[in-house]
């Protein structure tokens, strides 16, 4: 078991790009968990004027669209090709995202209708957000399947896919610290069965006196 002791389990989902983390998180949400989506929080923050101003001061107007929105592709080309720039971006975004995550978890803990909290965030370990979790789950899938899923879903080029993972903790190390591993190399129904069993083990065990 990882992280803090809380009234309800907080389940952190880890895995590689395209492994199916979001699918597992969605299945847990359907079972009564509140989903805390770190990536979605990051996207929301990019729309805030104060955050945009910090980004503009660092990288100028070239990372913005004509409509004034952050051009994530342009920003990505900068930060994923220079560790110094990636560190600069993380120093701006990670503390803000972390505070939002903590707030959302606190709200879920206070909601009697919530069975547990599930956190889905690509850089959970790198940012230290795993400290909010009571359990860590690794979603495993072959690299070929992961790439195929991402290409089909968003047209992600292999080079971009690799760049995303180059700056993250190696997958074998992520798997090694997790409490549970889910195999997503088979069918959706097989994945769903594993998620239900995971829910039973974590949530029902926590409910026992």
Descriptive report:
With 209 residues, this protein is of the alpha/beta class. It has a single domain, classed as Rossmann fold (3-Layer(aba) Sandwich). The protein is 56% helix and 12% strand. Strands 2-3-1-4-5 form a 5-stranded parallel sheet, sandwiched between helices. It is globular and about 50 Å long.
Q: Can you give keywords for this protein?
A:
209 residues, alpha/beta, Rossmann fold, five-stranded parallel β-sheet
Short description:
By secondary structure, the chain is α/β, with parallel strands linked by helices. It is 56% helix and 12% strand.
Mind sketching the topology for me?
Elements: E1 10-15, H1 21-30, E2 33-37, H2 38-45, H3 49-59, H4 72-79, H5 83-109, E3 116-120, H6 124-127, E4 135-140, H7 143-154, H8 158-166, H9 171-177, E5 180-183, H10 188-207
Parallel strand pairs: 1-3, 1-4, 2-3, 4-5
Helix-strand pattern: EHEHHHHEHEHHHEH
* Radius of gyration computed on alpha carbons: 18 Å
> Which structural category do the helix and sheet elements fall into?
alpha/beta
Mean residue pLDDT: 89
Instruction: Please identify the oligomeric state.
Output: single chain
Specify the CATH class.
Alpha Beta
How far apart the termini lie comes to 18 Å
Percent of residues in helices: 55-70%
Q: What percent of residues are in strands? A: 5-15%
């Amino acid at each position: 078991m990882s992280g803090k002791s809380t009234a309800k389990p907080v389940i952190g989902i880890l895995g590689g790009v395209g492994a199916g983390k979001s699918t597992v998180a969605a299945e847990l949400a359907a079972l009564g968990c509140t989903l805390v989506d770190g990536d979605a929080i990051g996207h929301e923050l990019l729309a805030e004027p104060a955050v945009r101003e910090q980004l503009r001061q660092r990288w100028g107007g070239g990372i913005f669209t004509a409509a004034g929105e952050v051009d994530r592709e342009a920003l990505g080309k900068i930060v994923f090709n220079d560790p110094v720039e990636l560190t600069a971006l993380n120093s701006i975004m990670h503390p803000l995202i972390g505070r939002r995550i903590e707030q959302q978890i606190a709200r879920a803990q206070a909601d009697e209708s919530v069975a547990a909290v599930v956190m889905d965030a690509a850089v959970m370990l790198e940012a230290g957000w795993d400290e909010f979790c009571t359990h860590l789950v690794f979603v495993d899938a072959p690299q070929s399947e992961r790439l195929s899923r991402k290409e089909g879903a968003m047209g992600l080029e292999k080079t971009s896919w690799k760049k995303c993972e180059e700056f993250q903790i190696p997958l074998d190390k992520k798997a090694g610290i997790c409490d549970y591993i889910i195999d997503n190399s088979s069918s959706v129904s097989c994945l769903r069965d594993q998620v239900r069993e995971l829910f039973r083990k974590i949530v029902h065990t926590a409910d026992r006196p």
